[in-house]
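Researcher: Quick test of sequence recovery. Tokens follow.
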């Protein structure tokens, strides 16, 4: 009987440890691209793509939920942003324009060379890109040809497109267009640099540089302050919580009107990118990719 109790105790402890490792902390997941700074992540139901901002590191690709990575686009300087649709991958490269793949990253073509592009988006069979040089482009043929739609008064730093709306995070707040980028209008969010935009249902969230997080429920026209946390905010919005990646502060979670840091296994990483892949959340940091498994809400335990 005593032996059975010892075995049961060991089994219970093992299950607890496995549970905590699986659900309670971030696990480094970067085999094949160890030590890379990952600024962007994207997923198309077949591959996860990671864009590195290490010099000449390019794009990496994983087919097993981020466990093993292989180079897809290499020797390209600083991938700032990624967007995917089906097998089409658009990679925005700092000072190098964008690179387009139509076969899940097997082959790439350079477009809009000599442009500094931080913002790309997809909606309704069109790809969009906004430049630091205040130009807005559109592609209607899967990224082969890019046409200039407008010259703007602002620099593009983030983009989100849905229905007939395009929102631009800029160095001067958020702008919107309802006619494909021909005309842009300011919103009442003028809180400086907008580094990320995220949408869930009818709620739009804007992450700022050193000025908190804002939320809109009317397509970005009006905004209220959602959080006053004064650090960079790279956002992901999910069903019942908002995650913000921060500068040297790891992950901040907003859920049930509460704010908490959940950095078990993460330390003081800078988190640039957050995506959901099946039952996992993956984050791109200043040193790696980390993964955390979702149960119901991964931040309630």
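Model:
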């Amino acid at each position: 009987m005593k032996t059975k109790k010892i075995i049961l105790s060991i089994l219970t402890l093992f299950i607890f440890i496995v549970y905590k490792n699986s659900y309670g902390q971030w696990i480094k997941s970067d085999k094949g691209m160890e030590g890379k700074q990952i600024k962007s992540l994207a997923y198309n139901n077949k591959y996860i793509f990671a864009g590195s901002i290490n010099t000449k590191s390019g794009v990496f690709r994983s087919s097993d939920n981020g466990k093993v990575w292989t180079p897809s686009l290499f020797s390209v300087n600083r991938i700032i942003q990624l967007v995917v649709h089906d097998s089409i991958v658009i990679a925005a490269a700092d000072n190098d324009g964008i690179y387009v793949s139509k076969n899940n990253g097997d082959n790439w073509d350079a477009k809009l060379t000599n442009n500094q592009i931080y913002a790309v988006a997809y909606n309704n069979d069109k790809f969009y890109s906004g430049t630091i040089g205040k130009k807005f482009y559109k592609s209607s043929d899967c990224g082969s040809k890019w046409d200039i739609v407008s010259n703007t008064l602002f620099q593009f730093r983030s983009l989100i497109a849905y229905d007939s709306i395009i929102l631009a995070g800029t160095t001067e707040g958020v702008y919107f267009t309802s006619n494909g980028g021909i005309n842009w209008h300011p919103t009442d969010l003028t809180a400086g640099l907008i580094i990320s935009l995220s949408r869930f249902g009818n709620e739009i969230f804007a992450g700022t540089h050193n000025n908190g997080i804002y939320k809109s429920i009317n397509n970005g026209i009006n905004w209220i302050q959602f959080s006053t946390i004064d650090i960079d905010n790279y956002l992901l919005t999910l069903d019942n919580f908002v995650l913000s990646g921060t500068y040297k502060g790891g992950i901040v979670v907003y859920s049930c009107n509460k704010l908490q840091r959940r950095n078990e296994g993460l330390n003081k990483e800078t988190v640039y990118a957050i995506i959901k892949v099946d039952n996992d959340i993956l984050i791109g940091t200043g040193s790696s990719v980390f993964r955390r498994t979702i149960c119901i809400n991964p931040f309630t335990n």
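The mean pLDDT is 86.
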